[in-house]
Amino acid sequence: MTLLDASPENSTLETVPVKEEKLLVASQWQLIRWKFVRHRVAVLSLIVLILFYLAAIFAEFVAPYAPGHYDADLTLAPPQAPHFFDNGQFNWRPFVYGVTSEYDINTFKTTYTIDESLKYPIHFFVHGDPYKLWGIFESDRHLYGVEEGTVFLFGADNQGRDVLSRVIHGGRISLSIGLVGIAISSLIGILIGGLSGYYGGVTDVIIQRIIEFLRSIPTLPLWMALSVALPPTWSVVQVYFGIVVILSLVGWTGLARVVRGKFMSLREEDFVMAAQLNGSTEIRTIFKHMLPSFYSHVIASLTLSVPGMILGETALSFLGLGLQAPAVSWGVLLRDAQFIRVLASSPWLLLPGALVVVAILCFNFVGDGLRDAADPYASI
Amino acid sequence: MLPFILRRILFMIPTLAVISVISFAIIEAPPGDYLDAYVDRLTSQMQSVDPSEVEALRARYGLGQSWSVRYWRWFSGVLQGDLGRSMEWNQPVAKLIGARLPWTLAISVTSLLLVYVISIPIGIYSASNQYSPGDYVATLIGFLGLATPNFLLALIFLWLYFLWTGNVAVGLFSDEYIIAPWSVAKLVDLLSHIWLPALIVGTSGTAGLIRVMRANLLDELQKPYVMVARAKGLKEGRVLVKYPLRIAMNPVASTIGWTLPALVNGELLTSMVLGLPTLAPLFVGALLSQDMFLAGSVVFILSALTLIGTLISDIILAWLDPRIREAI
Prior knowledge:
The structure holds 2 protein chains of 2 kinds.
Chain A: H1 8-25, H2 28-37, H3 40-57, H4 59-62, E1 83-86, E2 89-104, E3 109-133, E4 137-146, H5 163-199, H6 201-216, H7 219-228, H8 236-251, H9 253-266, H10 270-277, H11 282-290, H12 295-318, H13 330-335, H14 340-345, H15 351-373
Helix pairs in contact in A: 2-15, 3-5, 3-15, 5-6, 5-8, 5-9, 5-12, 5-15, 7-8, 8-12, 9-12, 10-11, 12-15
Chain B: H1 2-28, H2 34-44, H3 51-60, H4 67-79, E1 85-86, E2 91-92, H5 93-128, H6 133-147, H7 150-165, H8 184-201, H9 203-221, H10 224-231, H11 236-242, H12 244-254, H13 256-274, H14 279-288, H15 292-320, H16 322-327
Helix pairs in contact in B: 1-15, 5-6, 5-8, 5-9, 5-13, 6-9, 7-13, 8-13, 9-12, 13-14, 13-15, 14-15
């Protein structure tokens, strides 16, 4: 029977081999992608993360206000929820009700009431606070906003600043610190793990002892002590990089273990011996032949170590040992929520924490999905 | 068994030495030595400083000498229980730490117990009822527990506690027992308060351990010997307890090693937020006011205790599993 034999039974039979053939000729990355896409939660999480990072990259444009923009009449004002129904009538353009404040002379308390007579329609691409995106592009357009009144979707903090705008700006530090951190710790991890696994012997024993040591001591006290040692004269950018370095000095051990394990098993593989017999140098063997065969494992392991970095920065800043007040990060924002009386009357100050949880959940799901997909030949 | 324990203790000595060097580096990290800071403080309070007295102090603490001499002076003091003097509190560091360490330990140990008491049954249930609604709920709680920072959880609990009771601090005792001498009633009161911080501290550990327990048991349940046990006609509960559970428990016991550092981290943050009288507020205060003898000593004590905890867990593990005794 030849392939040209076009009887009805054969055409149905042929569709199966075509699909299998697609699997056989697909590159490793294609297989990984196919397997990852089947993990629905991971794909959804990846989309959420991409949205988070886009919002952080274009923070000035996405946030309706500058992080320092304040309205002294609206300190700790409650969130203004967007409405679509006006007196039972559906509106395509959402609007927020105005907030009026009343100061009680006797109790020294300001009470806020949602004033349903004031309606501020939300417009898109409105003019607002002027800004310079990435210090290059000057503009005053914002993704959304109101032409008069205020739109504080997440409420206001104790200085009358929009919490949502500050959360979006804070994402720039909190979300990037994870990526910059793993960039540094992946360099250290791959180098040290590679040395340990490639050479084995005494090198391996020493490096393993160091890793065991770093994993057996509690990291937070160490991070806290080291971040205090950063000179107080440093600018925000310098402190930022100082914190990243501190976080990644301890964070590389997980990756180093993965890399070492892979090197140990790959060292015995035929293709490595073939490369060596063909006269390729050690460096070339490591980077050209061995590393590419487990990039996917490295990426999965890196994704799973991002949450630790984000949590570390948030915890340090929350304790007042990380970034300080004029800088905006999620941990700095959560500092506003540490006074329980303030928190009890304005629980929306915890919303930055909700974003931390969502971001970390997403990284965990994406990491799990990648880890399952990292070895596409396991069960296909 | 004894050679194993001795070997482990011997392994611990270099690690302790490294920790002591790191702690001393932390003490020395801020620019200037601590006498400079002391003099600064006195002058800022408009007190006169006698240069000859400063020189005498400098000589006594060996501040003019090399790093290694100063380190050795400090470390030999530590071995004799002298951790230096806190400038901010004007008290010996050992006394300050000694007063608060029991609470840190009490919360951590309670937390460790809670982690195991909660996660093992949930893990067993999840594995033996895979893909049931209960399994999904446990998995979801596990993921949320891993993703929520301790201090955020503590803040949420504190907020709810305030809404319900109107109290701003959780505390470890009811008011009437705070200064009362120890009695059975006081102990009961402590236990009725300590579970909340312990639960918060243990969240991420519990979440992690549920996943480990579930994965281990699922692996074991697929093995042929389980099928044999079922084929013999053993009841499902008996099959579970008799064979796969025992094997799945070993990796769980070995996780104490990574649970302990996480517990110490969680305890620091949770106590800070809940305002508990543990080492945490002392440590953060010391760091913020650059009271480095206190800060460095806390790092040293916490790390050393974690190591000792890991050692105990290793010994328990070796006692449970003869293969480990032979291997190391």
